[in-house]
């Protein structure tokens, strides 16, 4: 009985020591990723600001897992979606795009904001880009007019553009299929951000045109039944779900604690 009591006491002491370490790390602000200079890029794009941050390492893990898909032959055209709004899909796709751009072989990455209802990519990047996918698909702009770079030359961005009256119809058009075929020949990876699948059909439409779909799921918020319904809708659209990303996860490790945004 005495041995058990001592073991429980030691376990409690170890736990208190870990909590104390966590508190000290928080006090030292080691978990905060600071913006560089006067950049307008959102601070949650941690892969852009601090490639060595603890949170950035998790996006590198995501990059590694992505590149390992299909035995090292990952899909080159990928949609990222979620079940509901505000699950972190846009932050996830932006950090994944930056992490891929930082890869040793410097692949050419194209990130398309295909959420023509409430696109957020330009906002998160702090860029005012009036022309985008909407103008391209409606014939109001050429491809070279809607592409722009940040300070990563191998990362190209296409904003969503203005809000059209018929986003689903534009995404289901022959022009969208032709666009995907064209950019697939010019870039190593094409990442496409779409609206949540339960809200609208856009993710299913584009998902059927690409090689894979990744779902972002917010831990502690999105219920299993919601995820099941989203999966059902994607399956009905005949898309290939290649992975899931859990967002808003708190990892508790012996030496540190951090949030995966």
* CATH architecture descriptor name of the largest domain: 3-Layer(aba) Sandwich
CA-CA gap between termini? 45 Å
- Predict the CATH topology of the largest domain: Rossmann fold
For the record, the count of structural domains works out to 2
In DSSP terms (H or I, runs of 4 or more residues), the helix count works out at 12
**Which value, in Å, is the CA radius of gyration?**
21 Å
Proportion in helices:
40-55%
The helix/strand class is: alpha/beta
User: Quick check: average pLDDT?
Assistant: 86
- Which CATH class of the largest domain applies here? Alpha Beta
* Oligomeric category: single chain
Describe what this molecule looks like in 3D.
With 261 residues, the chain is α/β, with parallel strands linked by helices. The protein has two domains: 1-30; 35-260, P-loop containing nucleotide triphosphate hydrolases (Rossmann fold). The protein has twelve helices and nine strands. The chain has helices at 2-27, 46-49, 54-67, 69-72, 89-101, 121-125, 133-137, 143-146, 167-171, 174-184, 202-207, 224-236; strands at 77-82, 109-113, 147-149, 155-158, 189-193, 212-218, 241-247, 249-252, 257-260. The strands form two sheets. Strands 3-4-2-5-1-6-7 form a seven-stranded mixed β-sheet, with helices on both faces. The chain has a two-stranded antiparallel ribbon with strand order 8-9. Helix 3 (54-67) crosses helix 5. The relative contact order is 0.17. Mean pLDDT is 86; it is low at 21-37 and 252-261.
